[in-house]
Amino acid sequence: LTRSIRLEVESRINKYMGQTDSQEVRKQISDEIFKILKDQGYYLAKVQIARRPHRGGLLYEAVIDEDFPCTIARVEMGFKLPSRIDNPFKVGMYCDAEDIRNRTNQLESELVEAGYNQQRIQTPELAFDPGSNTATLRVAGSLGKKIHVQVNTPIKTPGFIMAIFGDDLNSMDPTITDPD
After folding, report:
1. Which residues contact 7 (CB under 8 A, 6 or more apart)?
2. 93-135: per-residue pLDDT in tens?
3. Which of 57, 64, 66, 162 is the most exposed place for a label (fewest CB within 10 A)?
4. How far apart are CA 177 and CA 180, in angstroms?
5. Model pTM?
């Protein structure tokens, strides 16, 4: 295990300290560890919880075989991206839930910058194939309409004021897209 995964596993299973030993508690610990590994992209991980006496109590040992990480074999977008927006999801990337979340946020930010303020991107789904240890990433949603705001004024700045302040007195910042 990597150090970050190990620290996360240790911090999550500390809540089971002091509980009465049972098959159910060991199953909960195993499920908790597997969820952490799955979020990191290790869908084929195997977790075994062993117990042994230790200093008048019990010691749980977690034997973890994370196997190879799942990779993205295909990306299915439920909408067409504008030509100048790059798809952040690539074939071959790991099935890491946090990385996918970060890439989704990055895509949403780029779309807002491009004027798609009403876009709705749903949480991407992974369809895992255990035979090949790959997944299809499905990204559903819609872009909405592109919003472009331009304010024109028929009022011309008087010559004296224009000489002092320039012609920008009645103009509006074109980067403002919020109607409020």
Report:
1. none
2. 999 999 999 999 999 999 998 888 888 999 999 999 999 999 9
3. 57
4. 9
5. 0.70
